[in-house]
Amino acid sequence: MLTPDCLILGGGIAGLWTLRTLLAEGYDALLVETEALGSGQTIASQAILHAGAKYALTGHAAEASRAAGEAAAVWRASLRGGALRAPSSPTQPPPSPAPDLTAVTVLSPHTHMFTTPGVASRITGLAASKALVSGPRKLARTESPAAFAAAPAGVDVYQLDEPVLDLPSLLHTLADPARDRLIHALAVSVARRPAREVSLAVSLETRDGPVTLAPRALVCTAGAGNERLLAQLELSPEIRMQRRPLHMVLARGVDLPHLYAHCVSLSDKPRATITTTTDDAGRTVWYIGGQLAESGVERSREDQIAEARAELAKIVPWIDTASLEFATHRVDRAEGLDEQGRRPDTPIVRRHASVIACWPTKLVLAPLAAASVRGRLAELGIEPTGNPPPPPPFPTPPIATPLWDREDLAWS
Ligand SMILES: Cc1cc2nc3c(=O)[nH]c(=O)nc-3n(C[C@H](O)[C@H](O)[C@H](O)COP(=O)(O)OP(=O)(O)OC[C@H]3O[C@@H](n4cnc5c(N)ncnc54)[C@H](O)[C@@H]3O)c2cc1C
Predict the structure, then answer these.
(1) Domain residues of the chain, as ranges?
(2) Is 142 helix (H, G, I), strand (E, B) or coil?
(3) What CA–CA distance (Å, rounded) separates 88 from 85?
């Protein structure tokens, strides 16, 4: 039986970042994934490294903006090569090195905010907000991205220091150096044995047969799958989570300009957030979230596509969107609830005995979630043993296919 210091269940951004953090420290850690790495929310995310502007829009800037700014700084270090950050006080031990993410493709170094004519004043106030780590900078017409070349007067464009990443390259870069620590399981069952001293039993079904583990600590980073794991562990009342459904839209075409931008309105949420990628066939794909995805949950696929067509015609009327093909994707955001049962702005990491449940709340906050998991292991007295020997070879999980390349996505 394998007895790692720490077994992580779930290979989205939270599990992978935590695994890399613990391995860098010398922990004996393994990660189990039941589907493909990143399936669930991570591969469905817009992969914007928010540094706080989004929160300032909602008016709840201070705590969320600080956390996003702190996490975004770790990402920046990682994208430059994972240099050690200085400890914040001389008495603190140096933090573990951030993983080297220089191989990750940055789709855009910035995101933009743009207005429809008449709503400039709200952004002007936002631009002056001291709560923002990366304040929006209003761009002169000549500086605006090509997508805005034909925009009419009254459309103001602001630049945010918030990069957008390519998800498959992010997942590969995090997973590849830790391949021998990844296990692809067809089924997972977990149990606590509180009768004696609390011990954990994890049974896996793999392609090569059953595997049993008795980890010293179990870290649940299974996103929405944490609900089932916590129920199996009989921890559901103590540790709670919520789902927030979204109905995302994809639009593809050949001559679409690249856009990484929030269309802001007088509401506290972006009217639409558009990121851009290229599919396997070389077509440009816009991936659209924001208010359109939140308000579209009750709409059928056809109604959501009709709404998206109408919305694009209003917010980017200078771009020809009439000939685009559309698809939609439903996905739940899975978030932990804080002790007051509120929707979180920061990562939620809760511990009960040797079970740690973790929801990063946002992709950008994964480094903070991982640091918090490491803190919980220290509370348990679980310290790294040095350089653990590699475990026996296991079947390893694949990387999730991006939505726009999935064969089961219906386009019309
Ligand atoms: C549409 C959308 C857009 C978003 N855009 C952004 C953005 O632009 N910027 C940002 O910062 N954040 C964004 N987010 C939030 C961000 O994507 C999530 O906070 C983050 O991806 C959650 O990661 P996770 O690792 O906790 O969960 P997930 O990514 O959901 O990963 C969970 C993994 O666990 C696996 N699993 C499930 N059950 C088990 C089990 N029993 N055993 C083992 N494995 C299991 C699943 O297969 C999956 O791979 C967005 C979210 C959504 C839904």
Answers:
(1) 6-44+169-240+337-404, 104-165+244-334
(2) helix
(3) 9
Closest ligand 1 atom to Cα of 369: 26
Name which residue sits closest to atom 35 of ligand 1, judged by CA. 10
Nearest to 307 by CA among 290, 332, 331: 290
The CATH code of the domain at 6-44+169-240+337-404 is 3.50.50.60
**Would you place residue 163 in the very low, low, confident or very high pLDDT band (cuts 50, 70, 90)?**
very high
pLDDT for the residue 131: 42
Q: What are phi and psi of 183, to 5 degrees?
A: -125, 130
Whole-angstrom CA distances from 184 to 14, 77, 357, 396, 399 are 17, 30, 20, 5, 11
Quick: pLDDT tens for 330-356: 999 999 987 777 778 899 999 999 999
Note if the pTM is more than 0.85. Answer: yes
The amino acid at residue 129 is: S
Which of 42, 286, 350 is the best mutation target for the ligand 1 pocket, counting ligand atoms within 8 Å of the beta carbon and taking the most? 42
Domain 104-165+244-334 annotated CATH 3.10.450: no
Report the amino acid identity of residue 280.
D
- Residue 111 pLDDT class (50, 70, 90 cuts): very high
Ligand 1 neighbours, Cβ below 6 Å, are 9-15, 32-35, 38-42, 44-48, 50, 188, 221-223, 225, 229, 246, 248, 289, 331, 333, 359-364
Two structure tokens written together for 62: 């201070």
Rg (Cα) of the chain, in Å, rounded? Answer: 22
Q: How far apart are CA 52 and CA 70, in angstroms?
A: 10
